[in-house]
Design brief:
Pfam family, one: Acetyltransf_9
Structural class: alpha+beta
Number of domains: 3
InterPro entries: Acyl_CoA_acyltransferase
Distance between the termini: 14 Å
Number of strands: 22
CATH superfamily of the largest domain: Gcn5-related N-acetyltransferase (GNAT)
CATH topology of the largest domain: Aminopeptidase
Helix content: 25-40%
Largest sheet: 10 strands, mixed
Strand content: 25-35%
Length: 507
């Protein structure tokens, strides 16, 4: 755990919200109570197959384990002090006093060539009897969002209940990769008779972390992406070592990081990450530049499949005679970018994944102007490589009204010679005021070029994140208007549709 990732930015005094309810930040002593609340709150979420009709499921042990890991003090996404809680001080002794909770993760991210931090609210839960009292609203608006913004996070994102988080200033504007599937593992070419595998696998250790960091650059593990999360040193420390050290049940340590070795030289030439909790899924695959993917991919997949078969045999033995666990013909999933070389090489052997609600991410940008200033170097780079290089003028964006999660009714970005001179909140002027402004400029021989557009509240987030193109946003949201062709060109240059890499479920 490093101070650069986890630190407290706001005054963390407890807040009395009435009726004996106290909002406060967590400590490690809250781990069991928070885990119990989460397990009970998510009991209807199926983990290992559908819930039979007429059956009330018990606590969700998968998410109980997740909450315990988050409060372990060993997690790479947050410290044990980063769970925002509501505690009922009036409950009887021996009763769980934690009635609502929301975790706050911090993740290293990139937007093109610019490095950032993203805040990630997670594992939010409320005890059934305390729902519809606005507790999640208070946790987000009074604790999670202020803390995330104070420590410098560029945005917040979250998976979650459909439509629910829109009321807190979130819009669907990022996505993670839906995994493709190799449905028939027999389609993987077999090792020729009498031959030995040219590459071997071994589990990674903490000594491998510097090498893993260098081998997991965005260019290697998620090529063609321009927005996403890094595999940081903190990530590797957690997934390679810490999660196994704190493991308490079968839902902990559900992924393996395997170093790929040249069988002849014994030299490590790459790595792969495989998760197991929902079946075998390859999360990352990276090779040294001088290693041919066509020679390494199938030997690695064959060995990963053999390892998974062994795991399934053990699982079936542990579950006993009535086990539904099968070993032959299981699907192998690849959560790799569709343009990752491994996915391209597999070609028709893979069934591509389909974007579903589980892979769409709510995104909240609390201050558009501040975000534009943060990513300014990337926007200037895009301009420099475009037909509008050296542009001077004002881009004015109207959002119609201020809503939760937006700081102003609009945004003005001033460009001078292709550079961003300023970015500030702006509000569309009445026609009379707009005329006065124009006449004042004209009197001073300052008549700037004005580019303009209008977006329904929060939908500019979709364009800014590059999840959809300007044309697609105009089709989806009829309020979207663009002043003229030059304004359209400028917006398309600044905010093109891009690919994302948001691998977030490792915690």
């Amino acid at each position: 755990m490093t101070a650069s990732i986890h630190f407290q930015a706001t005054d963390r005094k407890a807040i009395d919200i009435g009726d004996g309810l106290i909002m406060r930040w967590s400590t490690s002593a809250d781990a069991a109570n928070v885990a119990s609340l989460v397990a009970k709150a998510f009991n209807w979420m199926p983990v290992e197959g559908p819930i039979p009709d007429g059956v009330t499921p018990g606590p969700n042990e998968f998410l109980r384990a997740a909450a315990s890991r988050l409060l372990s003090g060993k997690n790479s996404t947050m410290s044990e002090f980063d769970y925002a809680l509501v505690e009922d001080s009036t409950v009887e002794t021996g009763t769980n006093p934690i009635v609502a909770c929301a975790a706050l993760h911090r993740l290293k991210a990139y937007y093109g060539s610019v490095d950032l931090f993203f805040g990630h609210p997670e594992l939010i839960a409320t005890q059934a009897e305390y729902r519809n009292k606005g507790l999640v609203r208070k946790l987000l608006l009074e604790m999670i969002h202020p803390e995330s913004e104070a420590r410098g996070d560029a945005l917040q994102f979250i998976h979650g209940l459909p439509h629910f988080y829109r009321q807190f200033g979130y819009e669907y504007a990022m996505c993670s990769f839906p995994p493709g599937t190799i449905r028939d593992i027999a389609s993987i070419p077999a090792l020729m008779k009498g031959k030995v595998e040219p590459f071997r696998l071994r589990k990674a250790t903490v000594e491998d972390i510097p090498r893993l960091v260098s081998m997991s650059s965005k260019e290697k593990v998620s090529p063609k992406t321009e927005l996403g999360l890094y595999y940081s040193a903190e990530y590797w420390q957690y997934t390679v070592h810490d999660i196994f050290e704190i493991a308490q049940c079968k839902y902990d340590g559900d992924r393996d990081t395997m170093i790929i070795l040249d069988a002849t030289t014994g030299k490590d030439v790459g790595f792969t990450v495989v998760s197991h909790v929902f079946g075998m899924q390859v999360e990352a695959f990276s090779l040294d530049q001088n290693v041919l993917l066509a020679e390494a991919l199938y030997p690695v997949l064959r060995q990963l499949i053999a390892i998974e078969k062994e795991r399934l045999v053990v699982k079936r033995q542990e579950e006993g005679e009535g086990s539904k666990t099968n070993t032959p013909g299981f699907p192998v999933k690849l959560a790799l970018h569709p343009q990752h070389p491994a996915a391209l090489l597999l070609g028709s052997r893979m069934t591509p994944g389909l974007i579903a609600s589980a892979f769409r991410l709510y995104t909240r940008i609390p201050d558009y102007a501040k975000f534009i200033r943060m990513v300014g170097p990337e926007l200037e780079k895009r301009l420099a490589n475009s037909p509008m290089t050296g542009v001077t003028g004002r881009l004015r964006l109207d959002f119609y009204r201020k809503v939760e999660g937006s700081d102003h009714k609009g945004l003005e970005i001033i460009f001078r010679n292709g550079l961003i001179e300023s970015a500030d909140g702006w509000a569309r002027l009445l026609q009379e005021k707009a005329l006065e402004e124009y006449l004042e400029w004209k009197a001073q021989d300052i008549v700037p070029v004005i580019y303009g557009a209008a977006f329904a509240p929060l939908t500019f987030t979709i364009l800014l994140m590059g999840e959809r193109s300007l044309e697609e946003i105009q089709f989806s949201f009829a309020e979207t208007t663009v002043k003229d062709d030059n304004s359209r060109l400028l917006l398309n240059i600044l905010f093109p549709k891009i690919s994302h890499h948001m691998e977030t479920f490792y915690w």
